[in-house]
Amino acid sequence: MDDAIQGDPIRGTARGTAPVPLSVLDLVTVGEGRTASDALRTSVQIARLAESRGYGRHWVAEHHSMPGVASSSPAVILAHLAAHTDHIRLGSGGVMLPNHAPLVIAEQFGTLEALAPGRVDLGLGRAPGTDGATAAALRRTERLGEGADDFPQQLAELTRFLDDDFPDGHPYSRIHAVPGPVQGPTGRPPVWLLGSSGFSARLAGVLGLPFAFAHHFSAQNTIPALDLYRESFRPSAVLDAPYALIGVAALAADDEKEARRQVLTGALSMLRLRTGRPGLVPTPEEAEAYRFSPMEREFVDSWLTNIVHGTPDAVRTGLDDLQKRTGADELMLTANAHGGDIRLRSYELIADAYELPTSVVPS
What we know:
The protein is of the alpha/beta class. The chain has 14 helices and 9 strands. It has helices spanning 3-6, 36-53, 74-83, 102-115, 132-139, 144-149, 151-163, 198-207, 222-232, 256-274, 284-289, 294-305, 312-326, 340-353; strands at 22-26, 57-60, 89-96, 120-125, 191-195, 211-213, 244-252, 308-310, 330-334. The protein has an 8-stranded parallel barrel with strand order 1-2-3-4-5-6-7-9, surrounded by 8 helices. Helix 8 runs parallel beside helix 9 (222-232) and helix 13 crosses helix 14 (340-353). The radius of gyration is 20 Å and the shape is globular. The protein starts with a helix and ends in a 10-residue tail after the last helix.
């Protein structure tokens, strides 16, 4: 079998000339003039491309009430991707645990593990993945801070359900997440903690879990969070040493001008989201014609400095430099642009730049 299945489920394999394993973070973006169905078809295409070219994982992220994103139900999307791929690891980057009952997540990811044995990752975050009003609608409560504050307890409960090992006398000791261990020997998805600050970094370290940091939207916190994770790390049954990946916004195109033109669409989309005007991802033409105020221009310019973009060689150099600066054990690339064809082309160009294999199949 491919090493994505038979090898270490956490520590990936660097291929070609890449300094560390490369993976994909898919936000299932919906461009102006496109539909959610188009976006989901693109996700399948990206997953199949990533699998064939030696990317290690394909993760999807939970977001809500955002017109430009179609990934509100990671478990559903992952089941669909599992049916269209053979060996690439699939996972959540992540499921926002405070939005859900731990038993529900254990059941969903137990089902995914049964559908794609040995291929599923369960990445967990403590943020809502949306605005406050939508979070209240999801959780049926106005006390939104409560869910984030209770994250360690929710995580412990979820882990007990995944392992089916509540102690005797616990109120949940006779409750079983199914599919799961109560039905016989089975694997279970490795749990990752996700974060954009220090809270989950420290918790992941203390628990000896792998950690994924959202560099793509919180770049100023990357190195402090990774340092905190490594300093806090305690060996566990899961890991004997820290393992950290970072999400990186990266887009390669055949020339620098086109890459800049494409990433501007994502920057304008983020500007609108941050200013309470979420919508579909604009076209390159709309983004080029947009009249930015001085304050908006400052935001966009700052946002673009954290996107590794340009020609394939420039992107490779930028990713290499970022990996050296952060010491990241894995780079998870997210390509945000209006068109699915642009995103597919970017992943292919980056694979070529790192001389990744042209066809990876299980042995």
